[in-house]
Write a structure and sequence with these properties.
The chain has about 575 residues and is an all-alpha fold. It has one domain. It has 21 helices and four strands. The strands form two sheets. It has a two-stranded antiparallel ribbon. Strands 3-4 form a two-stranded antiparallel sheet.
Length: about 575
C-alpha cells in the first residue's frame, strides 16, 4: 500500500520529468493548432437576442441546467474510467497520473477562445458554442473528482482487500460492493463542489464575446450579464433569485438524497453515528410506484448490467502471464508517430513564440509573479476560515444539517455574477482592482478547500474519535493528534484544486470590461484576456504556456512534497 501511494503521486521525483515535458509539448501543439484554426474564424459573429422578460427565465434556467447536467455526466464517466484505470493498471498508472496532475493545472479559461474559435471554423456557430461551453465545464469539474476517486481506490485498507480476495469477488463485484462504496463519500462531496464550481465556468462560457464576435449563449449567465449592462436591478435580482432557487432544489432533491442513499452503503458505519436525513429520500423509499419500478424494471436491469459488466471487467482484466515490462510493437509505432507529431507541432509553436518581442516576455514574467502573489493570498485566506468551519460541518451532523445547504447555496452562486457589484464598490479605492481580483479568486476557489476538509473530517473513523475522548484529548491536543493528521491529504488536495481555480479566475479578475470601460491590472491573467480581446494569438500562446509551466512547477516543488509527508506520516492505518 505504501509503495502504491508513493507511485501514485510520483513522490520519489518531485521535479519536472521527461513525461511532464511531453505533456507540455502536447499542450503547446494543441494550442498552436487551435490558434491556426482560430485564424480562419469569421471576423464578425452575430450573437443571440436576449430577453429580460421574467417569462424567459424558466427557459434560460432549463438551458443552463441542461448544460451543467451534460457536463457533470461526462465528468462522472471520465472520473470512474480514469480513476479505475489508473488505480488498477500499472502501465495506465504511470501514464495517466502525471497527465492528470498537469491537466488540472491548465488554465481552462485561456483555452476557451482558442477552442471556440477553432470549432467555429468548421462547425455551425450555435453547435460550436454549445460544445465549447460543455467542454469548459467538464474540464472544470473532472479533475478534483478524478483525484478524489483515484485517491480513495489506492488507499482502501488492506483488510478490505483481503476480505474481497477471501470471498473471491469478481472485478466487477469488487468494484460495485467495495471500491465504489468506499470512494462514495469523497466522490459525492467533490461532485457537489464540482457542480458548484461549474456554475462559475458556465457563466463565463455563456457570456463570452471577443470584439465583434459574440458567442453568448441563452442562459442564466447571459441573462445576468445583459441585465447588469442595462442597469436593470430588477432583472438582476430575478436572475440571481432563479439561480438560488435551482441551487436549493438541487440540494434538497439531489445532493441530500444521494448523501442519505450513500450512507446506507457506507462500509464503516458506526451505530452511534447519526445518519444524514433527506425528506425526499424518505418519500421515495416509501413510494409504491418506485417499489414496483425496482421490482419489475430496476432489479432485472441490474442483473443484466451485472452480467454485461462482469464479462467486460473479466475481458479487460490483465492476464496472468508475467509482464516483462516491454511495450508491444503496435504501442511503439503509435508512440513514435505521436512523438513525431508532437515534435513538429512543438517546433511550429516555438517558431511562433520566437516572434514575440522581448518586452512582451518581460510583461509575461512580471504578470506571472503578480498573479502568483494574489493566488497565495487567496489560498491563505481560504485556509484560515475553511479548516475550522469544514471540521465543524464534517464532524457534527446537527450542525451540518443547518450549515450544509447554506454553504452549498453560497458556493454555487458564481462569483462572476457578483463581481460587477464588488468592482463598483472598490473601483475608486486605492488598489481597488487588486483587492477585487483577490476577492474574486477567493470567492471562486475557497469552496474547493472547504468541501475537501468536510470530506476529510466526515471520513475520520469513529473508533479514533472515541479513543481521543477516552484519552481526554481536548482543544489543541485533539487537533494535533487526530484532526489535522486526518485532514492533511484532503487539505492538500483541496489547496491544489483551489490553486488551479485561482489561476483560472485571474483571467476574468485582472481584466474587466465594466460600464463601457476596460479595467486591468498587472498579471498573467490580464495578459491572456488582453491577447484574447485583441486577437494577439502569439501573446495568448506565450502567456498561457507560461501560466501552465508556473503552476506545474509549483505543484512539483511544493505540493508534491507535502503529499510525500502525508503518505509517510499521516496515514489512517
Amino acid at each position: 500500500m505504501r509503495r502504491r501511494f508513493e507511485l501514485a503521486f510520483n513522490l520519489s521525483r518531485p521535479t519536472l520529468s521527461v513525461g511532464d515535458g511531453l505533456i507540455l509539448l502536447a499542450l503547446a501543439t494543441l494550442l498552436y493548432i487551435g490558434v491556426r484554426l482560430a485564424l480562419r474564424a469569421p471576423a464578425a459573429v452575430a450573437g443571440p437576442t436576449l430577453s429580460l422578460s421574467p417569462t424567459a427565465l424558466p427557459w434560460y434556467a432549463l438551458l443552463s441546467l441542461g448544460r451543467m447536467t451534460a457536463a457533470y455526466l461526462l465528468s462522472l464517466l471520465f472520473t470512474l474510467a480514469y480513476g479505475y484505470a489508473s488505480a488498477r493498471n500499472r502501465l495506465a498508472e504511470r501514464l495517466l497520473t502525471p497527465l492528470l496532475d498537469v491537466l488540472q493545472s491548465v488554465p481552462i479559461l485561456s483555452f476557451l477562445p482558442v477552442v471556440l474559435l477553432s470549432l467555429i471554423a468548421f462547425l455551425p456557430q450555435g453547435l460550436a458554442a454549445e460544445l465549447a461551453s460543455i467542454v469548459l465545464i467538464v474540464t472544470s469539474q473532472a479533475w478534483n473528482m478524478a483525484f478524489s476517486f483515484y485517491q480513495s481506490l489506492i488507499t482502501i485498507p488492506a483488510e478490505m482487500r483481503e476480505a474481497s480476495a477471501i470471498f473471491r469477488l469478481s472485478p466487477w463485484l469488487r468494484f460495485k460492493t467495495m471500491e465504489l462504496p468506499f470512494a462514495a463519500p469523497g466522490l459525492i462531496w467533490n461532485s457537489m463542489m464540482s457542480w458548484a464550481g461549474g456554475w462559475f465556468f458556465l457563466m463565463a462560457a455563456e457570456t463570452f464575446a471577443v470584439g465583434r464576435r459574440d458567442f453568448r449563449l441563452p442562459g442564466l449567465g447571459s441573462y445576468l450579464q445583459t441585465a447588469a449592462n442595462a442597469g436593470d436591478l430588477r432583472s438582476v435580482l430575478l436572475g440571481i433569485g432563479t439561480l438560488v432557487l435551482i441551487i436549493v432544489l438541487m440540494d434538497q432533491l439531489v445532493w441530500r438524497t444521494i448523501l442519505a442513499w450513500a450512507d446506507q452503503i457506507k462500509l464503516d458505519m458506526d451505530e452511534s453515528d447519526e445518519a444524514p436525513k433527506s425528506w425526499f429520500y424518505d418519500a421515495l423509499s416509501r413510494s409504491w410506484l418506485l417499489e414496483q419500478f425496482g421490482k419489475f424494471v430496476w432489479h432485472p436491469l441490474n442483473e443484466r448490467i451485472d452480467a454485461v459488466m462482469g464479462r467486460f471487467f473479466q475481458d479487460a482484466a490483465p492476464s496472468n502471464r508475467p509482464d516483462d515490462g516491454r511495450p508491444s510493437v503496435a504501442l511503439v509505432i503509435v508512440g513514435v508517430l505521436a512523438l513525431a507529431g508532437l515534435t513538429y507541432g512543438g517546433a511550429r509553436a516555438a517558431m511562433s513564440l520566437v516572434t514575440l518581442p522581448g518586452e512582451q516576455w518581460a510583461r509575461i514574467g512580471l504578470g506571472a509573479v503578480a498573479t502568483l502573489l494574489r493566488v497565495a493570498v487567496s489560498l491563505m485566506v481560504a485556509a484560515v476560515w475553511t479548516i475550522p468551519v469544514g471540521v465543524l460541518i464534517g464532524t457534527n451532523r446537527k450542525t451540518a444539517t443547518v450549515l450544509q445547504p447554506i454553504v452549498q447555496i453560497i458556493a454555487s452562486i458564481p462569483a462572476t455574477a457578483l463581481f460587477p457589484v464588488i468592482l463598483l464598490m472598490l473601483i475608486n479605492v486605492a488598489g481597488g482592482l487588486n483587492l477585487a481580483a483577490v476577492l474574486l479568486m477567493l470567492m471562486g476557489t475557497q469552496w474547493y478547500v472547504l468541501f475537501n476538509v468536510i470530506a476529510g473530517a466526515s471520513a475520520i473513523p469513529q473508533d479514533l474519535a472515541f479513543t481521543t475522548q477516552l484519552l481526554q484529548l481536548r482543544g489543541w491536543e485533539r487537533w494535533r493528534t487526530l484532526i489535522l493528521p486526518a485532514l492533511f491529504p484532503y487539505l492538500i488536495t483541496g489547496m491544489i484544486t483551489a490553486g488551479g481555480g485561482a489561476w483560472n479566475a485571474s483571467i476574468v479578475a485582472e481584466y474587466v470590461n465594466f460600464g463601457g470601460q476596460t479595467h486591468s491590472t498587472v498579471g498573467v491573467g490580464a495578459l491572456i484576456a488582453e491577447a484574447t480581446a485583441s486577437g494577439n494569438y502569439v501573446l495568448l500562446l506565450g502567456a498561457t504556456l507560461t501560466l501552465i509551466i508556473t503552476v506545474v512547477t509549483i505543484n512539483r516543488l511544493f505540493w508534491r512534497r507535502l503529499y510525500k509527508i502525508a503518505g509517510e506520516k499521516y496515514r489512517m492505518e
